[in-house]
Design a protein that fits this description.
single chain, globular, mainly beta, six-stranded parallel sheet, 115 residues
Length: 115
């Protein structure tokens, strides 16, 4: 069971629809984005970044795990897994330990997977 004080130590971020950020950002903790971002995103901890439908990122993404439902125009660097869902549009290089591309996704990339 989660107590009221537990929420004070959680690290998570939500940037919703209607939010537009320009510039590089660094985030710590699991993050859900539906925003539009022009700039690089760096996840500071080994956490998960989820780009929901409607999210648009124009810039480089560095994250441990990444799940994409929206669109990315830029390079992706992941020390974990990258999942590109059927609604996603991705353009740029991908370097990840594990890459999953679901049927229907639009992907224009050069990908490298490694152990």
């Amino acid at each position: 069971m989660i107590s009221g004080n537990d929420f004070k130590t959680f690290q998570y971020n939500i940037l919703g629809a209607g939010t537009h950020l320009t510039g590089d950002i660094s985030l710590s903790g699991d993050t859900i984005l539906t925003a539009k971002i022009e700039g690089n995103i760096t996840m500071l901890s080994p956490s998960k970044l989820v780009l929901e439908r409607g999210a648009k990122v124009k810039g480089r993404i560095e994250a441990f795990d990444l799940e994409v439902f929206g669109s990315i125009e830029g390079d992706i660097i992941s020390n974990g897994s990258v999942s590109i869902r059927s609604s996603a549009v991705v353009s740029g290089s991908i370097k990840a330990k594990k890459l999953i591309i679901y049927p229907g996704a639009i992907v224009d990339t050069r990908a490298i997977t490694q152990d």
